[in-house]
Amino acid sequence: MLTLTPDLAPDYYLTNFRFMLDWVWERYADLLNDDERYFIQAFHQLEHDAQCLLVRLSSRKGPVFRRDKLHYTEIVSIDIAAQQLLDANLIRIDTLHSLDTLANHLTKPELLALFGEQLAGLKQARKELLIQTLGAHFPDARTWQGWTNNQFGAAWYLDNQTTISNFLLLFFGNAFQDLTEFVLQDLGLLRYENYTIDHQHRLFNSRAELEQYRQLLQLREQLEWADSTEALLQISTQLPTQLSEQCPSEKLQRRRAKLCNQLAYELERAGEHAHALALYQQSHLPPARERRVRLLEKQNHFTDAWSLLKQLLEAPQDEQELQIAQRIAPRLAKKAGVTFDKQKPAEPRTQLLTLPKLIDEQGNALRVEEVVRLSLHTAETPCVYAENALLGGLFGLWLWPEMFRGIEGAFANPFQSAPLDLYQENFSANRPGITTLWAQFDSDHYRHSIRQTWVEKNNIANHFVNWNFLTSELLDIALHAIPARHLKLIFERLLFDIKNNRSGLPDLIQFYPQQNTYRMIEVKGPGDRIQDNQQRWLDYFAQHAIPAEVCYVRWQ
């Protein structure tokens, strides 16, 4: 069946931008500064074409825009639109530009034409050498017209990046989404759940929260580009020692803790162990405690390291932290002079298959998982490459009512496939209605509920559900073959630590419909090994007698 997507209106981007501005004004007008308020008010007073031009320029790399490079068919007169923006002080022509800024917006031939006298004999030189040569002649900044003397027409300066990015941050609540989310929805490629977002549930409650969140984002960007130990240490001095008492936002605390972990790890790699340890101590998020144990061990503080490791063993924050702590414990216990009885994990079932390599129609070798799947699959016992998509999809359908419940801090914009607190340790505590979902497993109601959600919510974005994969037929066979007890146990482990446990599930699942049963199979090709997250699932399956095994493959 062919699905037609709607054609976008020529000014679709303006509709979306207006929606974003109205959304921000409705929920955050009291948090905006004078520049942001002026922008919104001035924008709404512009005519249609001027609004279009401003949004077009705001979405492009600037801050300088040459008139001769702008061509938008939906704007009747770019010059008239630009004049309105100049009159409203939303773009400028009198800004002073450095030589480097000018050169970024001129080609090499244009530089040679404009500065023929100074660049005589350098026609074959690289552009960088031309700029370096001109720097000795022109140390002072000038306006665009002062530089070009009208040779390349007008150029406008737009400096609203901070204002627009603040609007986007208030709208989306994060730094990775942008207005393309609107386009995906307009084209019918994505649909989103209709959850509650109002003033009461807004993400930022003060200007101080917004400013501090932005500061943390800027520091993270600096960290991504840091190329020396000195740069890392400089970032550490800019990190807020403590967040403002005026904004005890849990989101901010987590953002700061995450940045502490990232920065500390880079300092640890650079050999700055004392600075790294100090930053890990300021973080309440994993893997801060584990890294502190390792650093204390490196510094031969074995007693302190063991004392901290005991906390991880007795009260782990997640299963990954516990697994790593159990791995470190025997070695550290010996160094600290204490006794530790290592628990031996249950051994998963294994099998060894000798199979021929297979080639697809394009001449490429099939992945080992697909080769095993084909060797096991029959019409009576279908075998599916599921990995995390099947059980994760069932989990997402089951959890749907509570996952999209409107609670404070869960949703910041209408384009979320999951609540913002999904990976937080208090996710379940914030949703006591999950108790009702667990009760569904006491009867056959969970099957009806999951199927009904699949029908009612089909193709609505969900962090766990791949609608292209989870067909009605696959859903039915999975609910038929996987017992309620097994599914509940799997969901319990997923919910305990969603971030770490949503991955690592076995590659294949084979169904035996006539026997109302199934088995999961983790495939390992020659030289491949079981990863930590996979081992944790295999241990859990063995502990609870859930059918899972490891299939080792060697080639014929």
Structure commentary:
It is a single chain. By secondary structure, the protein is α/β, with parallel strands linked by helices. Helix content is 50%, strand content 7%. The chain has 25 helices and 7 strands. A 5-stranded mixed sheet has the order 3-7-6-5-4, with helices on both faces. The chain has a two-stranded antiparallel sheet with strand order 1-2. Helix 12 runs antiparallel to helix 13 and helix 19 crosses helix 21. The relative contact order is 0.08. The N terminus is likely disordered.
Q: What does the overall shape look like?
A: globular
- End-to-end separation in angstroms reads 42 Å
Low-pLDDT ranges: 1-5
Number of distinct helices:
25
Mean pLDDT, to the nearest integer, reads 90
Query: What share of residues is helical?
Result: 40-55%
Give the strand line-up of the largest sheet: 3-7-6-5-4
